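FAQ: What does the model actually see?

It sees only this:
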Amino acid sequence: MKQWSLDRRAFLKAAGVLGAGLAMKPDFAWSAAGDTLRIRMEGDLQCLDPAFMNGGIEDVMMRGIYVSLNHFGDIRKGSPWSLWGAEKLEQKDPKTIAFTLIDGLKWSGGFGAVTADDVKFSFERIADKALASPWAYQFEKLDRVEVADARNGIIHLKEPYQPIFVTSLPYYGGHIISRAGTEKAGGKFTTQPPATCGPYLFSDWQQKQKVTLTANPDWPGPKPDFSKVEIYVVSDDQAAQLAYEADAFDYTKIAISATKAVKEKPPADTILIEAQSTRYVWLTVNQLSPRLKDLKVRQAVQYGVDVGQILTGVYDDLTKRSTGVVQPGTKFARASNLIAAPDYEKSAALLKEAGVSDLSLTLTVMNDSIRTATAQIIQASLEQAGIKVEIQPYDEAAFWGVGDKTQGDGYKNIDLALMDFAGGIDPSENLVWFRPDQIGAYNWSGFDSAEFETSYQQLVAESDEAKRIALSNRMEDLMEQSGGFVFICHQPLVAIHKTAFDPVIYPDGHPNPVLFKKKA
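And it is asked to produce this:
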């Protein structure tokens, strides 16, 4: 079969120029005066209800406008957790955790003090199956929250849940919301929270451009170093770098392909961050698709993707191929992949065995330059195996709707999808999305394994490290054996920021502006 090569710069050039043009619109603010921190995120605001948020900018905003019992330190320091909204958080036994809220927490909107009853409402609401929150797994082991008094409560679990301090309490489901405010709003809300209680207030939103947070005068905890945070929406990394260099903002992720150039010639007053991120990238092969129901056809796709070309063409060989969704370099990472690819002859033979010829598939992808470049390499690679691929690009909001079963049966007709998720510290946080109950939500491969589900339940309850490693490795074996996954890589985190402050970055790779510290 013929050989091929790809010019990464040719892939990225057009998208970068287009993105830069969008960033340079007349209404784009190029500077901010005074005590303001300006950071950039990729996607726009969609929902600030912790039960239904999508991540990204919402995650960053909620760290400012809500409070959780604990929170994380910087990813480069191992992401240690520490107390935040709680002055005490103590595990009494494997199924009981006592907490005491810090004194003086107050809701906006005249809803009074933040209480242990609000904690009860927030956690039990997320766990309620009737609400159908995609984050319900974070509290699926919750039995109830017992309210002792205004500031004290006890979290009762049905059974031990080892990762609760790093997957539930400091993350999406752990954000505390107002019972009275939410009930007054009808039980749900989207972009207008009825009440907030964090270090910042949600001040302004200019759709697809900027969100502004201002310091909350009623916040009783440590005051943030910046009185205002402006979060700019720029989808493309290259465009964001150009905007940063023009003093549009103070912190941004940049394209991984730009790392070497920035190292050699960094912008003035700039620090480059390189860190191992938990964000994992993979190709979903949807076994619910009529074209991919045969395991041999799915395996043909697995053998037909040249991951090495992606690592070179998109990531400049700054990262290695992942053996699964669990972060490399940790004790839980699998030793190797089961399928050595590419093997175009094997791919073609599998298609022949399945009686399939002239296979044509669609590849669903977000339309930024990095993902588009990756999709084009996948397209060219699969062509060598005799599989035609049509790339279907979407902006971020539309992309997530494609696999949402609440929007209809379209999720069953996805063929291939290029996906990347922000992972966590515990392996269960990365594996949870591929459980059967996530089909039609975030499990776009239609992967439905009873053994996987049983193993997951054992993983979150087990305290013995060796047994947890064996369980997580077996779960990734099951994923690959299903034909539903091509593991690509864990993206390195590459960001730039002004020298005047030190950022704090969560395990998911997103910044926590509340904890950014000015240098003396």
